[in-house]
Amino acid sequence: MKGFASDNYSGAHSKIIEAVINANKNHEKAYGNDQYTEEAVGKFKQIFGDDIDVYFVFTGTGANVLSLKTVTQSYNAIICSEFAHINVDETGAPENLTGCKLLTIQTNDGKITVDGIKKYMYRIGDEHFAQPKIISISQPTELGTLYTVDEIKEISQYAKKNNLLLHVDGARISNAAVALNLNFKQFTKDVGVDILSFGGAKNGLMFGEAIIFFNTNLSANFKFFRKQSMQLSSKMRFISAQFTALLINDLWKQNAQQSNKMAQYLYNKIKDFKEIRITQKVETNGVFAVMPRELALKLQQKFPFYFWKEEIGEVRFMMSFDNTTQEIDEFVELIKGEF
Predict the structure, then answer these.
(1) Are both 14-250 and 252-337 of the same fold?
(2) Domain range annotation of the chain
């Protein structure tokens, strides 16, 4: 049953499956020393420039945690939104594996600002206080909203002035690029991002994420942390081949355009129901809305989706690259049938 629960629910794109099959034809060197990994790294360098380091891991949590662990000590602190995936959806993995304290910022739209960061920039050098080391933002945010280029630049510039690093959780980075109508480099490397978790699984891959170090001085010991954290794939070619297929011929863009488009389509179909209130700007592939609980429970029987804030009846509809207008029309007809 297709639904709107998560872009992790979708299968892999057929071209991704084909790439995995092609990578399965012969023996290859293990642990990333294969031609497929070399090719995938080359694709990323075409996008971001040669002066980067690229590493592949299994999961988004692995990408985020290893990005943070590589550049922190256990007495450090990580500044993020209260809604950040590293704060609410990773079972404490960042704190458990880095030893760092997460310092969270309240926000209505998922985005943090320099003003919010500043409240934690005191007692620097005080041995009784966890020392801020890195800021982590999500692009797009967990609420589907977008940072502008200027907003990221402002955070980055503040970070640099205060000896902080900037990490971007880009689990849905392709959706952001499409919505902003920018290439990846323009809102990451060019504005001072130090480390990027580049998502694949939410945009058509079977599995696999990439970690990109724009500041290559930070990645000197990464390979040891990756192995120690059980994120080093012996048959890495099956991750790498997927990324090559995603990045060539703009498959990443086609997939993200479709999921973003379906979110806008759903928004336009339900925004005028007086019983439904849209709670966030629909900028990428997520739609957040408050609706009567009884209605939500009935709809969930036919189309899976999640409650976001159950106490107020807020739900999340997340579109995938393979959702269609027909499915959304059927969903809207169910809503109409309840009124």
Answers:
(1) no
(2) 14-250, 252-337
CATH of 14-250, one of 1.10.760.10, 3.40.630.30, 3.40.640.10, 3.30.465.10: 3.40.640.10
- Give the pair of three-digit tokens for residue 177: 């690029």
Q: For the chain, how long is the longest CA-to-CA vector?
A: 62
Q: Per-residue b/e over 240-265, b at no fewer than 16 CB within 10 Å?
A: bbbbbbbbeeebbebbbbbbbebbbb
Q: How far apart are CA 149 and CA 113, in angstroms?
A: 13
Burial class (CB in 10 A: 0-12, 13-18, 19+), 285: buried
pLDDT, one tens digit per residue, over 49-76 is 999 999 999 999 999 999 999 999 999 9
Superfamily assignment of 252-337 in CATH?
Aspartate Aminotransferase, domain 1 (3.90.1150.10)
pTM value > 0.85:
yes
Per-residue pLDDT tens digits for 254-303 = 999 999 999 999 999 999 999 999 999 999 999 999 999 999 999 999 99
Q: Residue 3 is which amino acid?
A: G
